[in-house]
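Can anyone check this?
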Amino acid sequence: VSVRDEQESFETIIHPANRSEEPKTLMVPKFWMEKPLIDFESGDVLMRRSVSLKSGSLNSSTGENKSETRTIFVMIASYRDWQCRHTVESIFNTATFPERVRVGVVDQIDNKVDDSCDEPIAPCKDDPDQALCKFASQIDVYEMDAILAVGPVFARHLGYRLYRGEYYAMQVDAHVSFVKNWDVDIIDQIDATGNDMAVLSTYLTDVAGSIDEETGKSLRHTRPIMCNTDYEGGGQGKHLRHLSQPEAIPHIKNSPQLQPYWAAGFSFARGHFLVNVPYDLYLPNIFQGEETSIGIRGFTYGYDFYAPEKSVVFHMYANGVNAQKRNKVPKFWEHQNLYRGLGVAAMNRLNGIIHMNPSNVEVSSWNHEEESRYGLGKARKPEKFFDTFGIHVKQQTTEQRLCQFVDSGRMHRQFTQHLRPDGMGINYDEVNYKFVTPN
């Protein structure tokens, strides 16, 4: 499957930063499915188990659903990143079953000076065993002029359009390295949750000192967990932002551990997560805030977030031994003089959709285009999330030290008791917990 075969049916969208009488348009792939996999018109509030079971392609001539036949879509949003090609190489070279992996890249580049993410590092005639040569048919790259970049939300919106019905969907940055047999490992982990609405997500550990150079295996026994967040001010107004996350040996064994928050740098779930909770097309110039948007919208669709028990991929940060390599990579805001001021209205839309705007923000101050498509589900309300995890929207404050409840495993042990018998998510109607700052 490749979107290259669909170019004649691409659709036209208006660039989200459009402010002119002659709007800038782009030809982009259509979404694999235009609507969520939930029959809201018939009164459903949660995706049915039967729909979930039918969702997701298999790399099998017999249609046999085994862990090794389940396909994986890996989405990467890259901005002028020299390391993108190396990340794609790592994905295929370390997978146990690379034939069931498909990669989709949104490559925002200046093609006069930058290499495309699907351009082999060496000519294929000289090194035909490179993943970029060997698995070229399993790599889709949507190339966009870097000057049109308006932040990760728009790039990842385009990335979700590259999904074509794979069983699982993963989201990573363009500068990561995978461990050996990562595909088998992460599927075993998500299966261990017994939850078809599970999303494994975290801030990745630094790659420095994390992977054995001889075996390709992880050297880490700790993992980060998403539990530390607070309100932050700025030019776009106050908003909820994830802070540094604790990393330790997991308290929950033989399973990923339940957590409240979602992280954009690593996400692994059933493919229907991308269908039901697509990135919003109308959020230009949003950098901080995307994780809150997807996380709370995902919660309202019935998804549950977990920290992986073991890390299968590591991130190259711009510090320590890799500072010089990463600091030379340009940032999307190098062209922000062209799009100045758009972020305020976009943040109002983001917070408005998830019921987090303060009372002084007028409803008329933000764009309501396609709000139902990029809006909330009906399985849970955002207010349930706020009450459960100590977020005070009106006061724009949070209860403190939530990580004591989450990282200790208490949240996991208490809430997983309410996992629905059919494995379709935790029933928060049965969860009466409200976190308050511990003494």
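Reply from J.R.: I decoded it. The mean pLDDT is 95.
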